[in-house]
Fold:
Amino acid sequence: MKIVLNRLQKQNGISVKLAGLSFAVGTLDFLLYLATGDEFFVGLGLGILVLAFFISVVLFLIVIANFLLGNVPFKEALFTTYVLLLNIPIAVFYCYVALQFL
Amino acid sequence: MKKTIIITAGGLVFATLFYTQSLGINALLYSILLIVALAVSRKEILLKSSIILSGTAMLSSALAISIHGSSWSMITYFLSTLLYIGYVASFQSSIYVSWLNGCYNAVFGVFHSFLYQLEPPKTEEPKKKIATGQVLKLIGIPLVLVVVFSVLYSSSNPVFHEVLTAIDFSFIDMLWIFTAVLGAFIMANIHDPQPIKELTARDQNYPNQLVPHALHEATLKSVANESQIGFISLLCLNALLCMVLITEILFLSGITDLEASSLSDAVHQGVNASIVSIVLALGVIAFIFRGDVNFLKNNQKLRTLTYIWIGLNALLVVSICIKNYIYIQDHGLTHKRIGVMIYLFLTLIGLCTTYLKVTHRLNFVYLLRRNMAIGYACIVVYALINWSAIITDHNIKANKIDQPYLESLLPQNALVLREQGLYDLYSQQKSGGKYLSDRYNEAAYTNRNWQEFNWIAHQLQLDHEDSSQ
Structure:
């Protein structure tokens, strides 16, 4: 699996890695908020969310453009866009849980 | 064909059961569908013990949701479903690897063949590229043209405008369709679960037994030194724990003379600190016996000291248990106090497995595997029982009524409160929850569709209908 992930087309590889990074950072922030209850982490989380959103939108468009131009196979493009979009329900879930404690 | 039917049925059933519905009997029905769907694709492993047990856990937690619907039953339901999928993917794996396999399949199941390159890599086919673009053009261009000309014709021809406005698509619920697509996607992910190969293979090849190494003189000396440090540390810790236990006995013998606030402090702080100390003790033992110390010929004294320490820690568990029991007798039951009891039970199990680890020269992975499996089994059994009802019944009978607390346990304790004639008073939620969303709303709770069936809500509804007739 690791080999396949390393063989992804450059922009797709970056997209998958950045999606993983924003998931990891977001989850860490969420867990720190749950553990400490410090509202600083809510602000930080919103900052991460906005930043990740803009980066993901740009990457999403690049992946789609690459696919439409025929540079990327269908399954690879589908996988990359899926991984990018997967952060949306996760972010919604984190926001929902965090709002319960505010 | 079989796959398409399963995925389509999965999507339709998912949307029918869950679209705008809260959890109730739908969880049970979906679990049955999941078991049937996985049985169709994996007949050969259906009767493996891990699959039967995880399937039973999933069904029992789904049943608990449709009977009392506590938060724990819902958490356990999701955990059990993921575990079941994980075990279908690889039935011989450890519990934590099965959870990971379950999560992997639930999220990335359809991409398994892509991630493991199970399909032969397709060579560049320029024809296909043209075909994709052609399909997009075939759909897109006529669609745009039809829309533009329809708008133009509609503004130029009033009869055509009326015809257009008369077309009513309101019966199509886009959100329902979205839910069905989501359900079909989930079913496509999990209908033929596959393990994360690297992780699963590594887990299955990892034994529970420690493997002895041939020790050189230098290594032997280092291990002997380690054993010596362990011996002295355990000796000191045993002496310390003996003193702590003596003071515990003195504390327990004079517990009746203590004021309520002192007892509360002693229990709250004492229990937490004691539990941490026991968990830490398990960690220390696991660390000392992590490797070659297990195979030293003259380590009998170290082992004896370890067994004594395990025994003394078990006594500490018993003393905490007595304190908690006295506290429950004085102040009534709560979820947290039951939680402490379960935590103590799990700690006792942890001490037993640590004893087995030392006796049979087992490794840390063994502790992880066994303790996690037992912990999960405890959660499943805990989630089956309606503790809120038990707490309410116990506290009312013992005359330890705390109205705000009992109100916060609604709706799970509604039937007990009704039996005791307190339901009408408590359901008004006069003391109020911390958050508005926490407050019990009888009308919202009892007004349910068949998918959301819940035994307590059903009983309240029947009662309501009887009283209105």
About this structure: The longest helix of chain B spans residues 217-253. The mean pLDDT of chain B is 85.
